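Example 3.
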Amino acid sequence: EVQLLESGGGLVQPGGSLRLSCAVSGFTFRNLGMSWVRQTPGKGLEWVSAISGSGDSSNYADSVKGRFTISRDNSKNTLYLQMNSLRAEDTAVYYCAKETPSWGSKFDYWGQGTLVTVSS
Amino acid sequence: EIVMTQFPATLSVSPGERATLSCRASQSVSSNLAWYQQKPGQAPRLLIYGASTGATRIPARFSGSGSGTEFTLTISSLQSEDFAVYYCQQYNNWPLTFGQGTKLEIK
């Protein structure tokens, strides 16, 4: 059974940092790309960042470029999102999502989400 | 950035009837379009990818069509569990982008 479990969310002050983790099981992690997608409470979905299976390629939304860093440890089956210089508008539920085995970044499994609140 | 526009924002349909949801891309995304369903307090669920291919264990009443810039998700006979928010997502270009969602509500 595929499982994705996020952790690391919480309350942080503007300008602060936070690292999210996503522990996965039930599939061959190193073979598949992964993404972080966020959702502001009551609003829609916003893709944040993606990383290839090997970890040697990544992409970012303009809204987080230069502030967030995606990474993965394939030996630990874990995906990360390092978030620096956090702003109020980064407040959201952050989901990790697994790409399907076929080409293209669409997501067949999602975690339950972890809430990040940026506020003083 | 490719902008995805969904319409209508809210669709009211009676159980047993057909629902048609639309998604438009600001430029061609070929067939690289996915649809998701999201219920309150839950993560999104993949319904359709490749514009028309049903994801695993998705009921046959869900179907997708379109290519280029115009896409449609059709639910042939609405069940009570289908009332939710639906999102389209293009994966033809970076950054990946989602539509703003269509809320399907009971009439």
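The longest strand of chain A covers residues 18-25. The CA atoms of residues 4 and 111 of chain A lie 5 Å apart.
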